[in-house]
Amino acid sequence: MKMKKASKTTKYKFNIKKIVSKSMTYRFSLGIVKDVVKNALENSGIKNSDDIIKRHEDEIVELKDRLNKTDTKFESYKKETNKTIAELKDELGKVSKQNLTQIGREMAIGFYEQSQKIRSKQKEKKTKETLLCLSSDGDLYLASNQQKCYPMSKEKMREKLIKVLCSAKGYIKTAELAEMVGTTNQAIRNSKLEINNKSKNRIGIDKLIIGRDGNGYRLNPEYKIKIL
Length: 228
Hints:
This protein is α+β, with helices and mostly antiparallel strands. The protein has 2 domains: about 15-125, no CATH class; about 130-225, Orthogonal Bundle (Arc Repressor Mutant, subunit A), CATH 1.10.10.10. It has 9 helices and 6 strands, in the order H-H-H-H-H-H-E-E-E-H-H-H-E-E-E. It has helices at about 1-25, 30-45, 50-55, 55-65, 75-85, 95-125, 155-165, 175-180, 185-200, and strands at about 130-135, 140, 145-150, 210, 215-220, 225. The strands form 2 sheets. The protein has a 4-stranded mixed beta sheet, covered by helices on one side. The longest helix is centred in the middle third of the chain and has 30 residues, at about 95-125.
């Protein structure tokens, strides 16, 4: 029984490592790889970087393929770029050993920065807005399920508050918001709480309106409201 348990545990750990490795690998295009190499060469005072890259395109393609199989750690990028620097050593023969090391380091930094940009873009794509609709009759409902509805037809001031916030790109100060809606600062605060409570209970969404001290209020960026 002990042998079976140990075997099962080892297999479980292996699967976890495999998943982590896959999730931390980002793919670079050939254009991005060439740009990073070019910048590293030019920053080290090498003027004919385009010619070098053109003559050694096979090595650059191989670098791209290796980078696309490694994880996003700086040390991993440095290891792969050092291989390419070694392949270009004859081409860069007049460059000192110290400068060769610096070129490899700058390339690694460039690839690491690119990986973080890719990561940020992937996060943005994963963050999906929940779409709501506000009908002409004052019904605020979930676009994917009209049964989840918050009728606002008898709450004109709150309906107007929603419409004003929909047209804003960011926070609106409480006093300005009160003036635009035609009410008081305290009424705005109360309405924010009431709208959030009802939208949560009737639609199933949390914190439709968010506030920040000194900035005022805005619609939660997780939601988008389409006015019909």
